[in-house]
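Hi, here's the filled form for the chain we discussed.

Project: internal
Contact: R.S.
Residues: 107
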Amino acid sequence: MAKRQRQVYSFSEKKYSVNGIASAVLSLVSVILLVGLLFVSFLLKGRANTWIGAVGFTGIVMACCGLRYGFAGFKDECRSYFCSKLGTIVGLTSIVGWFFIVCLGLT
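And the returned structure, exactly as it came back:
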């Protein structure tokens, strides 16, 4: 009779990557800025001052940095990649949103 093998489950908690956390925070702040500036521009009926462009550019830079940190977070070994995945996906989505806003502004 064959011996029954026991399955061993390991529930070791992996810590989040520092780059992944930075990526998630920067990307989420960029999305919040995007939604906030769209709301302000809607309230002002498209007659926003130049400060809205400066804040928008800051949002674009945050999204790009979030994407960079997200990719850097995947290089860390023995870490949980949840924040890196979240930051990368949200950062890409934010960059696409900012790209469409800039294209609409140029037309």
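Let me know if anything looks off before we file it.
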